Amino acid sequence: MHIFFHEGSTMQDRFISTIGEGQRDPLLATLRESHQYNVVIHSVDGRELIDSKGKKLLDFASCNYIGFDQDQEALLAEGVKAAREFGIHTSRARLMGYHTLFSNLEEKLAHFMGGEEALLFPNTTLASIGIIPALMRHGDLIILDKAAHATMYQASQVARDKGALLKSYENEDFDSLKNILEEHRSAPRKMVCVDGVYSMTGDYANLPKLLPIIRKHNALLYIDDAHGFGFIGENPTPQMPYGFRGNGVINHYGCQKDDPILYVAGTAKGLAAASAFALVTPKMKEFLMAYAKPLDYTHPSTPFALGILNAALDLLPKVGEERRLKVFQMTHTLVEGLRQMGFYVMTKTLFPIISVWVGETDRLLEASRKLYNKGIFLTSCPYPTMPRGKEALRLTITSSNKPEHIDALLDAFQSIALDWRSIGAPFHPMDLEGS
Ligand SMILES: Cc1ncc(COP(=O)(O)O)c(C=O)c1O
């Protein structure tokens, strides 16, 4: 037994070591040096953490924007009830059969979103991996926004294996999108894939510009709203630019049922429930149930997770508005503070994803380490998580953060600003022009 284990692990390591340096991207080595990687969290008190080295950290790396991950009192009981009633696990793949928990929740989600039907997936990643290759086949055209999430790219690569053509365009370069659609107008099916809320900038898919192009070219717009669902929603106002109800980017822009959209939402970030869903027509639902691989081969979300999702949908209208306002105020203070210090913050929307431009690896790593040492836990984004020249420090704000956390964060960034000034480092990509 011992010998078998030893040989097995040696072969595993040989597989890794025979991938030559030149074939690896530098992500792992870079992240290791950032200290903001593999942080093992020992204890949690809201957004105040202690890691396994005993370091106290303020958490600016959570995507549970309205703090439902910390709502044990309100949500846990329903998760446990679902597990008691239907079992700890689902026992089988979705296609074979499922509990009423699934059908009831799908009805509730479709109603909440103003759609016809919903179809649950275990998570957003598996929704994309299931849906995109199921729909896009030989001769079809997939166009990816280059800023869209990597999981849609992975899903599109599977579709490309089946003969679909894969193209991409720079975010917001709508002329280039039009040209690709025009050039491949004879493709039987055309799909354009975008994030609802971009995971690095917090900006929203420009649906007012995209939809007329999509309609004109008989295409389908695939929207991954992993960040937007549960947070942004309908009827935005200047006082509440995120909008209301948390019913996602499509309601934020007032989209209609007959718009050419396939909307997919993750529930893990907004509602702290390990699941996802697509808004579909009955015909699409029947098709995907059979042909989206994660539904016929993979276990679905557990009854516990779906119980949490059910309770979270009930809690959302009760606490959502107040918590979104809190997030807006803290995000506003943070962005203003960072901008006053001279930092370039990539946000048009004040969505609580705040990426501070650094623009190169060494300074990114130095800042990441310094911020960790000052007790700030954030997402360090070197190449290839960001394109070269756009390396950034990503901060996320949730309603479980406190105004004093923002003060501490700004203090920590003040010391980064001092460091950068002392060496004449650029604060903005434009500072590099002509240098
Ligand atoms: C835009 C986007 N899509 C998908 C995902 C993956 O979501 P999930 O954890 O539901 O698979 C993420 C995760 O951060 C994301 O930012």
UniProtKB/TrEMBL annotation:
Cytoplasm recorded as keyword: no
Co-factor requirement: pyridoxal 5'-phosphate
InterPro entries: Aminotransferase_I/II_large, AON_synthase_class-II, PyrdxlP-dep_Trfase, PyrdxlP-dep_Trfase_major, PyrdxlP-dep_Trfase_small
Pfam hit, one: Aminotran_1_2
UniProt cross-references to SUPFAM superfamilies, sorted A to Z: PLP-dependent transferases
Transmembrane segments: none
Protein name: Aminotransferase class I/classII large domain-containing protein
Keyword Transferase (UniProt): yes
Occurrences of domain Aminotransferase class I/classII large (ranges): 56-412
Keywords from the named record: Transferase
